[in-house]
Amino acid sequence: MHQVYELTLEEAKLMIEAARKKAEEINVLETIAVVDSGGYVIAMERMNKSRVTGPEIAMAKGFTAAGHKRSTHLFNREPNGPVLPGNEAFGIQHMIPGKFATFVGGFPVVVNGEVIGGVGVSGGNGEQDTAVGTAALAALAEHLKNDGHEVITDADIKR
Amino acid sequence: MHQVYELTLEEAKLMIEAARKKAEEINVLETIAVVDSGGYVIAMERMNKSRVTGPEIAMAKGFTAAGHKRSTHLFNREPNGPVLPGNEAFGIQHMIPGKFATFVGGFPVVVNGEVIGGVGVSGGNGEQDTAVGTAALAALAEHLKNDGHEVITDADIKR
Amino acid sequence: MHQVYELTLEEAKLMIEAARKKAEEINVLETIAVVDSGGYVIAMERMNKSRVTGPEIAMAKGFTAAGHKRSTHLFNREPNGPVLPGNEAFGIQHMIPGKFATFVGGFPVVVNGEVIGGVGVSGGNGEQDTAVGTAALAALAEHLKNDGHEVITDADIKR
Amino acid sequence: MHQVYELTLEEAKLMIEAARKKAEEINVLETIAVVDSGGYVIAMERMNKSRVTGPEIAMAKGFTAAGHKRSTHLFNREPNGPVLPGNEAFGIQHMIPGKFATFVGGFPVVVNGEVIGGVGVSGGNGEQDTAVGTAALAALAEHLKNDGHEVITDADIKR
After folding, report:
1. CB distance from A49 to chain B under 8 Å?
2. Which chains form contacts with chain B, at 3 or more CB pairs under 8 Å?
3. Does B36 contact C40 at a Cβ distance shorter than 8 Å?
4. pTM for this one?
5. Which of C132, C135, D14, D83 has its CA 20 to 30 A from that of D33?
């Protein structure tokens, strides 16, 4: 057997709290989902007046980031994004329908080098969703650093 | 146009907080979702160590309670539950696949006589899910009573 | 709680009536759906002899316009349409399968600055669907102006 | 963060090897899937000449056993099976369509009291699927006992 870390509800809420504060600061209405390594929601919040499409899309972004171990904007970013027409994974965006999100807003939660979850953010443009998602990662990093754990806080994460 | 009330994120979180405390008190691991009148999640939490099937099922219960305006256990309770074999709505449980939950754990949020959302609880047995779900309703009722709003806090709700 | 406006059936029918008249005037066979803020149909009509694919597509357009708060042609219009290959939301069109429409024919219903529903039109080309959909918005604007409500009647709506 | 155990591929193969031997011994053609705590396949084998429906069903059984933390025959066994008409979870079988299996053949993998995966078996009757599935659990128990880990090997598992 392997031993692996798992996010707690308390940590997920701390991440969402930081994300929501960042969203309020930059004035964007977001849904934020924190998921486990299997892509299952631990906690999710949709800000007042934000889109009803938010939860479904935020969950998909979190699932994809955690499950495919990649920031979701790395799938479709020019020129090498693998899901772009002409590139070799063009078509993978149709797999696992409704759950495989290959555009900006999903970020893996990587602790001590291992993906243990994901954050999905839906509601803003790419820059906004990225600011909000990485705020969640930064809050977790801050929270865990005293115990000697390292969390990746960059936007571009690929395992 | 009609004017209708809408739950805020703050109210949804207050409901989840009360529900989670009740779950801790009666020692059961639950996922709790609070949804709006369209069945879309406002906030959701999955307790540590609880089932990964929780979010999907809790969301379905909340959706059905809000959207069909009925506590979900009223669908399948003996002897008149309409989805029981021999009763006239037997089969409705296959509609809107994956989202129409016709068993215990979903409760409409009724404010001043109107359904404005739902609570879905998944993880315990019927008695436990009901205790947790109605704790959420009671917390909302307490919170809104000073403003003169009435919230139904019974388990059996049908509009 | 927040208080929000909700379209009535009478208003939805008035919108459809205006849309259908416009369709007859420009000689195109359309299905027209008016949906609420959660994307659920309030009223829908399919003109004689029009396509059987109309209802499913018109509902998707209305859902997306209402739920994502954007005219659906703004998703795919050159050169900045966010779902075009190379742009940042390329891939969002695969979310919420069968319901997320990212091409011309869906328009949010915005009253006093808030999205309270959507209109989805399917059957014609882009110019025709737009003429029909905005006719529905204009009819609502006319109907509500005496009560001091403002309705956006432009084709390009983004919240 | 919590720390949890995770099955390795080597352990999953060892479980399948034992299960397949049992199937050969009792002369039944089976598909056997071993999944992780999120219900995702670690390893799967379909015996020569066995049914093509096997993989989909075995995966669903493994998913449900792991994700809902219960041997799948406990859902529908007379008289207390919760999904039987008249019992309180009648209807849960329609959740997570195609993945939630509420009949014999799925068994949680419980190590030191925690569910860390599941085994799904499809191809035989209930007695056969149970013999094959519990053979997998017994093999894992044997393998891990020298390291001081306890694995539940009964057929009836409920957390």
Report:
1. no
2. A, C, D
3. no
4. 0.98
5. D83
Average pLDDT over residues B137-158: 97
Does a structural domain hold residue A159?
no
- The model's pLDDT over D116-154, given as tens digits with 9 standing for 90+, comes to 999 999 999 999 999 999 999 999 999 999 999 999 999
Q: How many domains does chain A divide into?
A: 1
Q: Is D158 within the bounds of a domain?
A: no
**What strands lie across the sheet with B41-46, from one edge to the other?**
A106-111, A114-122, A31-36, A41-46, B41-46, B31-36, B114-122, B106-111
Judged by CB atoms closer than 8 Å, whether chains meet at B3 and C3 is answered as yes
**Are C44 and C35 contacting, i.e. CB atoms less than 8 angstroms apart?**
no
Q: How far apart are CA C119 and CA C130, in angstroms?
A: 10
Give a yes or no: residue D70 inside a domain.
yes
Amino acid B156 reads D
Straight-line distance from the first to the last Cα atom of chain D, in angstroms, rounded to the nearest whole number: 22
Q: Is residue D4 part of a domain?
A: no
Question: Which positions in chain B touch C36 (Cβ < 8 Å)?
Answer: 38
Q: Does C30 touch chain B (CB under 8 A)?
A: no
Q: How near does any CA of chain A get to the CA of C41, in Å?
A: 15
Look up the CATH number of the domain holding residue D132. 3.30.450.150
C11 has a chain B CB within 8 A of its CB: yes
- Alpha carbon of D125: minimum distance to chain A alpha carbons (Å): 31
pLDDT in tens, D61-117: 999 999 999 999 999 999 999 999 999 999 999 999 999 999 999 999 999 999 999
